[in-house]
């Protein structure tokens, strides 16, 4: 399988040096994995997962660090510097990710958070990004049904909710009433399809739709309590944010689930906690 610049690769060690090891980069030849990234005990002939990119000298280099986003993916990242070339974003590697001025939908300022798409410049082999992402989405018919689980990236806030990237393929909308808990631009989280409109637009929800979200929650609550000595400090009086942190649901959904478990005589409700019966 050929090696890919800008992606995680599983490569074989072919040579050891004092300053690191060389990996079989297939069509790119041997690629250095610097000593500071070499896992302890790694020997010639063994495989290692690495990310390949160009260093400051425009030479191919490998690292065992995994960036926040890879080539072919969208992400919400923070701009850490701007100069005469463009804006640079923190993506989890020592060398920041460049968005050239020509690839900026709106001029990026330092400290701003933007949605972007990472791609490989086929001429230079440099990994760069663009904030001009509209044309890269909604290029096919959405294949979803109500209740399907998807992964979303939170985008710009509008007067009705948040624009979201769905599964790296589509635009969707998360209305305020369906955005349980605190969300911010760039957050990546699971969500559910609430509806696909006739015009192809997608409505999203952080929670599963219908009573299915309650029935699924019942098992989660029981399992959570079993793993914590048969009890939990959350009750129907608990803070909504704390409920969302633990179970990723609204307080209303949590109360329905607790009520169902109580009716089934599986739990005992106490003043400051819930226990298994």
From TrEMBL:
Belongs to the CvfB family. Coiled coil: none annotated. Residues 219-276 form the Conserved virulence factor B-like winged helix domain. This is S1 RNA-binding domain-containing protein. It comes from the Bacteria. PANTHER family: CONSERVED VIRULENCE FACTOR B. Transmembrane segments: none annotated. Pfam families: S1_2, WHD_CvfB. The lineage of its organism: Bacteria, Pseudomonadati, Pseudomonadota, Gammaproteobacteria, Lysobacterales.
């Amino acid at each position: 399988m050929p090696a890919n610049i800008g992606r995680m690769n599983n490569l074989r060690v072919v040579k050891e040096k004092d300053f690191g090891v060389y990996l079989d980069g297939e069509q790119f030849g041997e690629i250095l994995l610097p000593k500071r990234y070499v896992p302890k005990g790694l020997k010639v002939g063994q495989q290692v997962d690495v990310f390949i990119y160009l260093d400051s000298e425009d030479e191919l280099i490998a690292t065992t660090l995994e960036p926040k986003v890879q080539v072919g993916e969208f992400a919400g990242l923070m701009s850490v510097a701007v100069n005469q070339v463009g804006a640079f974003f923190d993506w989890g590697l020592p060398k920041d990710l460049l968005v050239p001025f020509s690839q900026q939908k709106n001029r990026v300022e330092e400290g701003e958070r933007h949605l972007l798409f990472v791609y490989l410049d086929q001429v230079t082999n440099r990994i760069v990004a663009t904030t001009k992402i509209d044309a890269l989405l909604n290029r096919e018919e959405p294949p979803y049904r109500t209740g399907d689980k998807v992964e979303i990236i939170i985008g710009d806030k509008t007067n009705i909710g948040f624009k979201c990237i769905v599964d790296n393929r589509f635009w969707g909308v998360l209305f305020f009433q369906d955005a349980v808990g605190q969300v911010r631009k760039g957050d990546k989280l699971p969500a559910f399809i609430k509806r696909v409109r006739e015009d192809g637009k997608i409505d999203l929800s952080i929670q599963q739709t219908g009573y299915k979200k309650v029935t699924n929650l019942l098992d989660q609550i029981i399992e959570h309590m079993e793993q914590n000595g048969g009890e939990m400090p959350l009750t129907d009086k608990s803070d909504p944010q704390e409920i969302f942190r633990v179970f990723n649901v609204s307080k209303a959904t949590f109360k329905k689930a607790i009520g169902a478990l109580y009716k089934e005589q599986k739990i005992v409700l106490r003043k400051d906690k819930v226990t298994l019966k």
